[in-house]
Design brief:
single chain; alpha/beta; eight-stranded parallel β-barrel; 21 helices; 25% helix; 26% strand; hydrolase; Glycosyl hydrolase; hydrolase activity; Beta-mannosidase-like_N2
Length: 923
């Protein structure tokens, strides 16, 4: 090598960060790497297969697996292993031992399929519902009918029993008659005059069974409101596990999808203890469609009681049980008929989920309508319920079941996954679980075993060769987002009583699948959207959390290990607890700042509501509001209370600063660590951002860190702003430190580019791996997708890796060169002069390659991996059997039988121009 080339190479290395510099990236653990849900179909696993797949996952950059046994594949019944049997536990032990040797972690579900349940759930512990029968009695009519259960499905159950009998006359006067009914259903009650309606409530069972259950896991769904049912259920695990946790890091419970479970055996007694009155006298208002105020109040109390029961009797017991095994627990609270914030906060790792795909403005991002579910779109504010609970209570990890039904099967590219992952990160979540990966025995042919509702993160996916690009990006990002603490400045109260006070319906489940009904129409949500876009960072808080909060060190804090906040916002609402208002005034008395968007109108619930309403009004009257320009404010003790319909004006009044960087369209999430802060910044706009952006925190040194390739360097700063260059679809991390590190080189900003060198010479196309067969090699006059060669049927059906190779002469010098792809279907490994130059997998499809180039002749290989769709299309057209599962076999994104035979051929390979762009850095 000539001396000048050595000098040039050293300059190019300098452009990518001084290799001797102290690396500003946090040390990554396996929790920083993505994990994946690992379905064991029929639990038909063996040591050889487990070893092979765990090793494959580890090499691809996965940090752990989450075992969920489900239904099995047909023809493999003799290999099924019953859940929690000695043989199953042996496979679990092998898995955790192998994972440990690979520095991976293992979680497992406390059940098969979902929701939890199984053969250990006897009739008594099964999900419970109320069955209501009414009897109309006309004036002077003798009531001789027996009050017995008529439901044929329930008659043979041993646990059904009469729970409440209440009669109402035309004046709505009630008489509780429960103790007047004999065992055979005879009513011993002397009728008084007038027309009466009798409401009889029986304790029944939903009869719901576990969905998608694995062998040994079939059975009734659990009664989540019964402490005995929860304890009985977990005894099966105690028996299987003994005194060991078998190396399981965390036990997982999937989302609450129990249908019709609106009662439990001792609900009546629990209600009276918690709400202060007997619901029997008001049962009509609970079970009927009466839309009166009293019905709303009774239903609010009912829903609050259900919330407390699932929290105390299931979630808390689940957490305590996991801790007794020296493990953690993960719980998906969404879907539960309870306060999601409290339920998420009651576990070690709160977990949300995303379902469907988001419309982003990123240039070139594909989102074909025929491949997506247009009814459901992930919502960042729904995700914040989980992250808020964790941030407030100091849980270091917040997980997410990610990319469920992102697109149609076999049509998801890694470039489509990236912005969805970024949106998850922007919500405050920092521990992604892919949904997911299916265990496949070594002797099962392509495409292996597959789960019916997922993005296929499986080794058989033709995109697998380049998954390390996506996984490395997630690992670097999560290493930062798992460092320090969340740095949100605002707490926003969730007015759950406004939801619970609705006189419509009975039980109320807060699902991710119906947020358009319970979340989107609220002023609360409107505030979340507006404040987020304006550059404020916030977490949601519950009544329970407000009751636990203290004002210390000039901030509101619920937990010493949790976040600290500058202000509490109470959005416009109708119903508010007088005890919560008292707690808020106590916070203000000690120095807290509070914003009310409106005056609370009324108290929730029925018990002594007039007395409590007067107390609410009395407490409110103690606030000495003074009219200012466009709001009211009051000094209250050491604190400040502001009343304003315009929350942003109130925040400005209290001098709570927003991050003005969002004015550019950039999005961010912020973390604080000892001695500084991290900003994770994403450009989901269609434009390039090349400017100084303002930040509220500027340290003595600002380092830029690229999570896609690991580059870092010291940024240019000016007047509380940092210079960033972000193309559409790119992201960046800014580390603001109070302690400078002189060993870190300057960040290399692109000052100018020159006219690109277009690689429009002939290319050689060969095929490396994939199927159904490798197409023949081709010489191309110009770049084009291999699917363009319609005369060769094998190219249209091929899914795998095609290699585009060419040589070119380079005489130009530059600080660096950017290899830019016009159209890439879908990801590529770039090899220049025999050296691995990196993976191109996300938009914009570009990669810096200067340090691999030389003066004169250069050879470039681009190994392109396409979607699996074309091969599946071929298999369906030729009726080649590949899906053959028990229970649900295989469905498309609309849950109809899957058939790819009519799909269009998906373009595969390279198209358009490939440019080599000379770039010059600012000095």
């Amino acid at each position: 090598m000539k001396i000048k080339n050595i000098v040039k190479l050293s300059v190019l290395c300098f452009a990518f960060g001084n290799l001797s510099a102290q690396n500003p990236w946090p040390k990554a653990t396996n929790t920083a790497q993505p994990w994946t849900r690992w379905w064991w179909m029929g639990s038909a696993v063996d040591e050889k297969g487990l070893d092979k797949q765990l090793t494959t996952l580890s090499k691809a950059g996965f940090g752990g697996v989450e075992i969920v046994p489900i239904y099995g594949a047909k023809g493999f019944e003799n290999k099924y292993i019953n859940y929690l049997s000695p043989e199953w536990m042996k496979m679990l032990q092998f898995t955790t031992d192998k994972a440990k040797s690979l520095k991976m972690g293992v979680d497992m579900a406390v059940g098969t399929g979902w929701p939890i349940g199984g053969p250990q759930v006897n009739e008594n512990d099964a999900a419970t519902k109320m069955i209501v029968q009414t009897y109309d009695i006309q004036p002077n009519e003798k009531f001789s009918e027996k009050i017995v259960l008529k439901d044929e499905k329930q008659k043979n159950l041993k646990t059904t029993k009469l729970d409440i009998v209440t009669a109402y006359n035309e004046k709505n006067e009630a008489i509780v008659l429960t103790d007047k009914v004999t065992q055979d259903g005879t009513l011993n009650w002397k009728l008084t005059s007038g027309k009466w309606t009798i409401y009889a409530v029986f304790i029944g069972k939903t009869l719901q069974k576990v969905k998608r259950a694995a062998p040994g896991g079939d059975g009734y769904t659990l009664d989540h409101f019964s402490p005995d049912a929860t304890k009985d259920y977990l005894k099966t695990f105690d028996k299987a596990f003994g005194n060991s946790n078998y190396g399981v890091r965390s036990f997982f419970n999937d989302s609450y999808e129990v249908y019709g479970a609106d009662w439990t055996a001792n609900f009546k007694e629990e209600f009276k203890k918690r709400r202060g009155y007997d619901v029997s006298q008001y049962i009509k208002y609970l079970v009927s469609d009466d839309e009166s105020e009293i019905a709303g109040r009774i239903k609010s109390d009912y829903r609050e009681t259900m919330s407390e029961l699932i929290l105390n009797n299931f979630t808390d017991n689940f957490t305590n049980w996991a801790h007794s095994k020296n493990s953690k627990n993960i719980n998906q609270a969404h879907g539960s008929p309870g306060n999601l914030l409290d339920l998420y906060a009651a576990v070690d790792i709160p977990e949300s989920e995303t379902f469907g795909s988001t419309k982003f403005d990123i240039q070139g991002l594909r989102r074909n309508l025929e491949d997506i579910n247009t009814k459901e779109v992930p919502d960042i504010n729904m995700l914040k319920f989980a992250s808020s609970a964790a941030n407030i209570t100091g849980k270091p990890l917040i997980s997410n079941e990610s990319f469920t039904w992102l697109t149609e099967h076999f049509k998801t590219s890694w470039s489509q996954v990236k912005p969805e992952a970024e949106q998850i990160f922007l919500s405050g979540i920092n521990h992604i679980f892919y949904h997911g990966t299916t265990y496949t025995p070594a002797d099962v042919q392509f495409p292996g075993w597959l789960f019916y509702a997922s993005t296929n993160f499986v080794p058989e996916n033709s995109l697998w060769p380049n998954i390390k690009g996506l996984n490395s990006y997630i690992e670097r990002t999560q290493s930062v987002l798992q460092s320090g603490k969340s740095d949100n400045e605002i707490l926003m109260y969730w007015p759950v009583y406004d939801q619970w006070a609705s006189p419509k319906g009975k039980d109320m489940a807060f699902k991710i699948h119906n947020i358009e009904k319970w979340l989107h129409p609220t002023v609360f949500y409107e505030n979340l959207e507006k404040l987020g876009k304006s550059g404020y960072s916030l977490d949601m808080i519950s009544d329970k959390m407000i009751g636990e909060a203290k004002f210390e060190n000039q901030n509101i804090q619920v937990s010493k290990s949790g976040g600290s906040y500058k202000v509490l916002i109470i959005p416009q609402l109708n119903y508010f607890s007088e005890s919560t208002l008292k707690n808020i005034l106590d916070l203000a008395q000690n120095g807290a700042s509070v914003i009310f968007q409106s005056e609370p109108k009324d108290v929730q619930g029925f018990f002594e509501f007039e007395k409590r309403r007067n107390e609410l009004q009395s407490l409110w009257a103690k606030i000495p509001f003074q009219q200012e320009r466009n709001l009211k404010s009051a000094t209250f003790g050491k604190g400040k209370i502001v009343l304003s319909s315009d929350v942003e004006k109130a925040l400005e009044y209290l001098k709570i600063e927003r991050e003005k960087l969002t004015d550019t369209g950039l999005k961010f999430v912020r973390r604080k660590f000892d001695g500084g802060k991290y900003y994770y910044i994403v450009n989901h706009t269609s434009k390039e951002i090349n400017q100084n952006i303002p930040l509220n925190f500027i340290g003595k040194q600002m380092a830029l860190m690229n999570p896609e390739n690991g580059d870092f360097g010291v940024a240019e700063t000016q007047n509380n702003s940092v210079k960033v260059q972000l193309k559409s679809g790119e992201s960046l991390i800014i580390k603001a430190s109070e302690t400078p590190d002189s060993s870190i080189s300057k960040w290399k900003y692109i000052e100018k580019t020159e006219a690109p060198i277009v690689l429009n010479q002939p290319w050689q196309l060969t095929f490396k791996e994939g199927g159904p067969e490798l197409p023949k090699s081709k010489t191309l006059d110009k770049l084009q997708p291999w699917t363009n060669f319609t005369e060769d049927a094998s190219t249209e059906s091929f899914s795998g890796t095609g290699i585009y190779t060419t040589s070119f002469k380079l005489n130009k010098k530059a600080d660096d060169f950017v290899l830019k792809f016009d159209k890439l279907y879908e990801s590529a490994k770039v090899i220049i002069n025999g050296q691995d130059a990196g993976i191109v997998w996300s938009l914009p499809f570009e990669i810096n390659v200067g340090k691999y180039l030389k003066k004169g002749k250069n050879t470039i290989q681009i190994e392109v991996s396409n979607l699996t769709a074309n091969r599946i299309r071929y298999m369906d057209q030729n009726k080649i059997q590949w899906r053959n599962y028990h229970e649900i076999n295989f469905v498309n994104i609309d849950y109809k039988p899957f058939d790819a035979s009519n799909w269009k051929v998906q373009p595969s390979g390279l198209d358009g121009e490939i440019q080599l762009i000379p770039v010059y850095f600012s000095k």
